[in-house]
Amino acid sequence: MIDSFSVAELTTHIRELIESSQTLQDVWVSGEISNFSKASSGHWYFTLKDSKAQLKCVMWRSAASQQMFPPNNGEAVLAHGYIGVYDGRGEYQLYADKLRPVGIGDLYAQFERLKQKLEAEGLFAPERKRPLPPFPRIIGVVTSADAAALQDVQNVLRRRFPLAEVLLSATPVQGADAATRIVKAIERLQETPADVLLLCRGGGSIEDLWAFNDESVARAIAASRIPVVSGVGHETDFTIADFAADLRAPTPSAAAEIATPDSADLRDAVARAQTRLGESLRAAIGQKRAALNNQAWALKQHSPQNTIRGQRQRIDDLNARLLSGQRARLTLLRTRLAGRLTTLNASSPRALLARGYALVSKSLDGARVTRAADAKPGEGLTLQFHDGELKVRVEDKDTHERYPRKLF
Amino acid sequence: MNDISALSFEAAFEELEALIGKLDGGDLGLEESVTLFERARALADHCQNLLDKAELRVKQLSDSGRVEDVS
Fold it and tell me: What pTM value is reported for the model?
């Protein structure tokens, strides 16, 4: 019986050997890219080769999306990662997490140096970032006149915010003099009434995008009096221009979106405003009506009708008091009068006359005679009885001093 | 007050919001609030109208800084 492994057992053993090697788990490999393919899943598959050997490589999407650029076949690169075994195929391969083109290693270093320099200068500082106008009227677009990026921008603006006007400041976006021309295109817009500026370029290789990593472009963006939105390359591409811009959009289309309000939202906002308007006016009128009602009530309180009514009542009161007072007084008087009449009747001279007395007066002039001394003998006197008069003449006169003597 | 039909969307929208704020404030005369209301309504109509009729205009800035129409 020969001692043997199953294929799986052997493959596992080999994998364990490889995975236990420190060297193979953290390795840089240099070679030339071939058979590069980008799966729909986002993973990259390629082979690294040199004149003597080949190495299968895979780069998962998570790592691939971090790369500044996708590699091209034939390109010399430095790949970093670990060696692993794919059991299903019995193949070992490099699981790459970093990929640096050897040819542009210089560019990469340049990029980092410039980024650090400008960052240290404060060119990318958050407090430098300006807000975008809420309703841009004129949108300056710096890009190539015949690029797809311009079409993308226009399509988005047409759909989202056709109220705006596009002012294209055309410039080549790649090539030897692209950076200088981009700077000029940005500067040209400074004299126009554009209120926001989109700096756009579609996707491309790191060399294609290189003008956007130029120092003069970064400074022109920072110096722009108009806020700048950058939309350069694809989502994963970062350029110096992106850092210098007031706002970085992942793509040209996204830049157009970020820079504009959606007219559908505006339509809603206007409709809401119309509704609120009606409510406001109704509320205002309601308020006025309430105030008016208050005034009307207050007015009623002060109406002359009220005063007149009050006065009338007082008069009635006074009248009543007057009447009852008068009535009482009359009754009192009437009672008193009756009393007087009785007394009067009792002391009436007629009553005296009836009891046998007579009133004496001189016939000549009617003067009352109350004493014997008043009359002279022979004088005519009138005696008034209760039932008539007697005319008499005084015969003799006797003073009353005689009476006591006569009587005693 | 200026002619509404000549206002940009931004200006009309801003004024519309300002008028609504004023109307909500409430201490206006009745006649004044009705006048403001009517102007605000005209502004809102103008805004909708601008949105309905808007067509993106594209112009190009020449190297010398002249603005030219793009066909």
Answer: 0.55
